[in-house]
């Protein structure tokens, strides 16, 4: 645990020592957020709106996986090589599809199983003046909610991140190398190791919990200009915490992975030369 914490804090220093790379990540992340907002808010009433919606359905996944590839490749190579990043973005997309399908299947099975254990209906008190009684804890609901969080909140992200790092670098032919399935097995084994869960837990606090705490609370402020300024500051802090926390998490994971095998690292070295 001590080694993991030292690696975590040294990664923080490394990230802030490269403001140029952080600015690139922020630009891609801002584009991703803006595209997602337009995709959610736009109404498919006219032809151009339908075309924009379809275009965003393609651009948003590309932006998402380009961001992940840029972070991982920057952590591995200490430079941004856009040809390799774009290739890795497509590889990340390809490897993520079966993971998403498996996670969806587990989520579906949990929902089907949870339907057999519905929470009891609490009858309203006969005396309306009496204080409401707290319903007893329904253990099946708690267990299934926890399992859903483990699958989608922890298991799926950890598996996806380690698979991305395992196939990063090189060319598409590295997906068909002899050591491919060995690397995949090693990546999945590392994904659920205690150190990996600790790194993800620390990152979760920064890229999810802190932005949630900053954005969710509502309070009244006198003056529309002050309220707008405070709201803008909250948005900016949430943006920074979520970005830096995610970059920090992926970079730390990339630094914990052993060197890539020769059939993967050799093409990447040739690209750099």
The figure for the number of domains is 1
Q: Which regions contain 5 or more consecutive residues with pLDDT less than 50?
A: 261-273
Number of E strands: 0
Order of helices and strands: HHHHHHHHH
The general outline is: globular
Helix/strand-derived category reads mainly alpha
Rg, nearest Å: 22 Å
Fraction of residues in helices? Answer: over 70%
Q: In percent, how much strand structure appears in the residues?
A: under 5%
Give the terminus-to-terminus CA distance: 37 Å
Oligomeric state of shown chains? single chain
Individual helix count: 9
Mean pLDDT: 84
Overview of the molecule:
There is one protein chain. With 273 residues, the chain is an all-alpha fold. The protein has one domain (2-118, 137-272). The chain contains 9 helices and no strands. It has helices at residues 2-16, 19-41, 47-77, 82-114, 139-167, 180-191, 194-215, 224-256, 262-272. α2 (19-41) runs antiparallel to α3. The longest helix is centred in the middle third of the chain and has 33 residues, at 82-114. The chain is globular and about 70 Å long. It starts with a helix and ends with a helix. Mean pLDDT is 84; it is low at 261-273.
Features:
0% strand; 273 residues; mainly alpha; disordered C terminus; 9 helices; single chain
């Amino acid at each position: 645990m001590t080694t993991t914490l030292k690696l975590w804090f040294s990664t923080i220093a490394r990230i802030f020592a490269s403001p140029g790379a952080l600015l690139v990540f922020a630009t891609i992340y801002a584009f991703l957020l803006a595209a997602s907002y337009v995709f959610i808010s736009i109404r498919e009433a006219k032809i151009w709106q339908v075309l924009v919606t379809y275009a965003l359905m393609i651009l948003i996944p590309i932006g998402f996986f380009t961001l992940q590839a840029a972070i991982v490749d920057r952590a591995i190579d200490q430079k941004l090589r856009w040809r390799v990043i774009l290739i890795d973005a497509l590889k990340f997309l390809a490897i993520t599809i079966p993971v998403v399908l498996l996670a969806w299947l587990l989520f579906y099975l949990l929902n089907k199983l949870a339907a057999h254990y519905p929470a009891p209906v609490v009858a309203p008190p006969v005396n309306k003046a009496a204080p409401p009684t707290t319903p007893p804890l329904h253990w099946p609901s708690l267990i299934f909610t926890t399992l859903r969080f483990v699958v989608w909140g922890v298991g799926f992200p950890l598996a996806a991140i380690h698979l991305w790092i395992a196939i990063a670098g090189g060319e598409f032919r590295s997906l068909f190398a002899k050591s491919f399935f060995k690397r995949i097995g090693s990546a999945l084994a590392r994904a659920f190791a205690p150190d990996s869960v600790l790194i993800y837990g620390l990152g979760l606090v920064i890229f999810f919990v802190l932005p949630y705490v900053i954005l969710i609370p509502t309070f009244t402020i006198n003056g529309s200009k002050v309220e707008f300024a405070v709201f803008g500051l909250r948005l900016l802090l949430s943006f920074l915490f979520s970005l830096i926390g995610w970059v920090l998490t992926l970079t730390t994971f990339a630094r914990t992975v052993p060197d890539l095998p020769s059939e993967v690292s050799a093409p990447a070295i040739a690209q750099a030369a």
